[in-house]
């Protein structure tokens, strides 16, 4: 249950829904605004990302949970009379006064209205400015009403004529509900504050899958409460005891003891109930991991990338100021030549512009690698801390709630540990009226937390153990890519030292790049269109390939006709469009790969030439600065004239630079030349920065240039007509 394995199905369903939404979207001027918003989102401080995305998702997850706890607080009495020689779990109910029931019900209605408003806002049925005041006010009022009842019940709530009485599970469920309502209302206040301060738009930037998380949570909790109601009637349990049983059953903890089905009907209904509960919980846990935490990790990676980049740029600036464009030691393990090239100005005669730009590119790749490594271990540290916190603090609470059982703190740790790992021996179990509600709340938090910890360990600790095992096998009996045992030891030592041995860096990078390229090619054909059924996927793929091939063939024929008629300009345009189509098909295949492709500098230089920019031209480039506001805009298919260069082939079969026809086509398709602001590979406007994958960024820019060229075809007859009219007037 710790790893339901539903990440891919959830992600596929999300992609399929998103594709249907995107299919209806027509490109327009708003797309440029959206791109700027994407960049601002990437550079957004983490606190505002939490306010805009994480807090609404937290509210959508814990709001229904608080509603469920409010229902538990309403359905049973808050006090019991302890019989002589008995305990509170076997107490006799004391009826609640009518005013308590009325206020409790009013609190539940207020919270349900707040949750409904939040759900409709996430579904884009109610605008942000209307929904959020209702949500915040509803949760806050519900919390205040419950807090008032809790305060009265804890001090002046003694029943007349009753000597020994105790508070029931319903009272403690009210405490958890009030706390959750209060926290959610304050979190949503921060969300509204950030929106009205202009840090992000006044709308939830959530994906379709994220918006369904609240519905999944509601489904799970409704399923639990209805199941508890059915089993309470069948087995003769109190409803809240049945809720406790349903919780440890669906979470596969299986404490057992006093709460196990004993009737034939109860045992028969357990089969479908347990299966359904585990399935729905798996959906919720998988959604939390794949749609909240993965995006949280992505935001963490974005911030770490930006901080690492700024740190590198500041070191370069410091070295340039202090030593006059020299750096003795390369930061982040960069080679001295690369580090020295970073201190040069664009167009410096000490080094060719292309070599200087390639040094920037390699430095940015190193920044990305460092950020990814830091992200993995930061995530592991956070999830480990969360697990340890829930384990130790949960054990401390159980130590106090189960004092009548005389648990030691070590025994509480033992019980909490076996529950977290869903072992559930059953030798220890909470029986107090405060321990059972806390166990329900604590277990709903703890099990997903353990799932996240296991996922993070898979990216770090488990991966290291796996690589070490493979390495030990390679130096003994398993086949290896290295020729000798000495080379195998070196390769393993490089992995252990995280690449600090300079003599192996180049070889390791080549091996890693080649393995990633192979993995991307192998996975590309498999991952393409996974959200669709196999037959529909094959049909759609065939249609797309046939359409692209027909378009490419059409441009090829047009190029040949223009060449035969001696129309050089038209020949250039047809050749340029044919090249664009061919590269779009290639990049599209790369974008569908399971492992996102990282393009080499030669490939990037070629693509930028297709977009009308020359890496050899220093006028496009600037020195990076450490602050985002000092940077220019991201390259957006620049349209400045470039001097043609002869094609050169790289080892992947791509030309390092485009032909003069392609350069002219890039220029002619967009009209007159337009100067663009400069940018740097290690600037925050670099194509390597941002939330988009490299292939996704490239395919958007290539499509933009193709659209511009096609619009040029449409406008050509009008230009010819105007030209003919002007000549007739003359």
Automatic annotation (TrEMBL):
SUPFAM superfamilies in the cross-refs: Voltage-gated potassium channels
UniProt superkingdom: Eukaryota
Biased composition range(s): Polar residues: 669-687
Main location: membrane
GO molecular function terms listed in the Swiss-Prot or TrEMBL record: outward rectifier potassium channel activity; potassium ion leak channel activity
Pfam families: Ion_trans_2
GO cellular component: plasma membrane
TM stretches of this protein: 48-69, 99-122, 134-158, 170-193, 213-231, 269-292, 377-401, 407-426, 438-455
Membrane topology type: Multi-pass membrane protein
Region (Disordered) residue spans: 1-36, 514-545, 619-692, 710-730
Domain Potassium channel: 220-292, 388-462
InterPro entries reported in the protein's UniProt record: 2pore_dom_K_chnl (IPR003280), K_chnl_dom (IPR013099)
Biased composition (Basic and acidic residues): 626-657, 710-721
Keywords on record: Ion channel, Ion transport, Membrane, Transmembrane, Transmembrane helix, Transport
Biological processes annotated in GO: stabilization of membrane potential
Subcellular location: Membrane
Compositionally biased residues, Acidic residues: 1-11
Name of the protein in its database record: Potassium channel domain-containing protein
């Amino acid at each position: 249950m710790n790893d339901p394995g539903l990440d891919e199905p959830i992600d596929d369903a999300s992609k399929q829904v998103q594709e249907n939404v995107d299919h209806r979207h027509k490109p327009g001027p708003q797309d440029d605004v959206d791109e700027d918003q994407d960049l601002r989102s990437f550079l957004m401080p983490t606190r505002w990302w939490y306010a805009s995305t994480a807090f609404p998702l937290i509210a959508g997850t814990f709001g229904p949970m608080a509603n469920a706890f409010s229902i538990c607080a309403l359905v049973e009495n808050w006090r019991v009379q302890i019989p002589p020689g008995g305990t509170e779990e076997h107490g006799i109910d004391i009826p609640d006064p009518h005013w308590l029931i009325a206020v409790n019900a009013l609190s539940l209605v207020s919270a349900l209205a707040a949750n409904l408003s939040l759900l409709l806002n996430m579904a884009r049925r109610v605008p942000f400015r209307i929904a959020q005041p209702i949500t915040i006010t509803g949760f806050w009022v519900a919390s205040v009403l419950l807090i008032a009842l809790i305060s009265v019940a804890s001090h002046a709530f003694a029943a007349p004529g009753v000597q020994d009485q105790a508070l029931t599970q319903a009272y403690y469920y009210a405490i958890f509900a009030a706390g959750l309502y209060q926290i959610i209302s304050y979190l949503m206040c921060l969300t509204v504050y950030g929106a009205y301060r202009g840090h992000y738009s006044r709308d939830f930037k959530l994906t379709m899958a994220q918006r369904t998380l609240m519905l999944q949570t509601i489904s799970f909790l409704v399923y639990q409460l209805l199941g508890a109601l059915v089993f309470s009637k069948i087995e003769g349990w109190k409803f809240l005891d049945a809720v406790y049983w349903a919780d440890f059953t669906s979470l596969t903890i299986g404490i057992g003891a006093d709460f196990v089905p004993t009737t034939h009907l109860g045992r028969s209904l357990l089969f479908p109930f347990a299966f359904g509960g585990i399935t729905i919980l798996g959906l919720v846990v998988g959604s939390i991991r794949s749609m909240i935490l993965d995006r949280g990790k992505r935001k963490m990676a974005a911030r770490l990338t930006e901080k690492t980049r700024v740190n590198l740029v500041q070191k370069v600036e410091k070295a340039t100021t202090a030593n006059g464009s020299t750096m003795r030691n390369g930061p982040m393990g960069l080679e001295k030549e690369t580090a020295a090239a970073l201190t040069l100005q664009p167009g410096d005669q000490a080094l060719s512009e292309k070599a200087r730009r390639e040094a920037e590119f390699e430095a940015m790749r190193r920044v990305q690698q460092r950020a990814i490594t830091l992200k993995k271990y930061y995530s592991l540290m956070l999830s480990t801390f969360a697990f340890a916190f829930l384990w130790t603090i949960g054990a401390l609470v159980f130590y106090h709630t189960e004092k009548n059982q005389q648990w030691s703190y070590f025994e509480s740790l033992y019980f909490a540990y076996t529950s977290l790992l869903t072992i559930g021996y059953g030798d220890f179990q909470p029986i107090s009226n405060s321990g059972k509600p806390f166990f329900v709340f604590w277990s709903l938090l703890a099990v997903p937390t353990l799932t996240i910890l296991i996922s993070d360990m898979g990216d770090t600790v488990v991966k290291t153990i796996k690589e070490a095992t493979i390495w030990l096998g390679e130096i003994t009996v398993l086949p290896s890519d290295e020729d000798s045992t000495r080379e195998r030891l070196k390769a393993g030592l490089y992995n252990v030292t995280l690449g600090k041995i300079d003599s192996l860096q180049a070889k390791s990078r080549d091996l890693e790049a080649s393995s990633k390229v192979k993995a991307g090619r192998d996975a590309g054909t498999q991952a393409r269109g996974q959200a669709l059924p196999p037959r529909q996927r094959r049909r759609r793929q065939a249609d797309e390939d046939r359409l692209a091939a027909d378009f490419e063939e059409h441009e090829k024929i047009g190029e040949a006709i223009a060449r035969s008629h001696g129309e050089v300009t038209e020949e250039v345009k047809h050749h340029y469009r044919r090249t664009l189509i061919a590269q779009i098909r290639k990049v599209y295949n790369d974008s569908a790969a399971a492992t996102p492709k990282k393009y080499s500098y030669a490939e990037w230089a070629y693509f930028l030439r297709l977009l009308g920019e020359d890496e050899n031209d220093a006028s496009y480039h600037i020195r990076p600065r450490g602050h985002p506001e000092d940077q220019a805009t991201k390259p957006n298919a620049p349209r400045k004239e470039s001097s043609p260069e002869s094609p050169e082939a790289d080892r992947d079969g791509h030309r390092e630079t485009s032909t003069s026809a392609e350069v002219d086509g890039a220029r002619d398709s967009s009209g007159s030349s337009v100067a663009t602001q400069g940018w740097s590979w290690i600037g925050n406007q670099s194509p390597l920065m941002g939330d988009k994958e490299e292939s996704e960024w490239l395919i958007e820019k290539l499509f933009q240039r193709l659209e511009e060229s096609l619009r040029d075809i449409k406008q050509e007859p009008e230009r010819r007509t105007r030209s003919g009219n002007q000549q007739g007037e003359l």
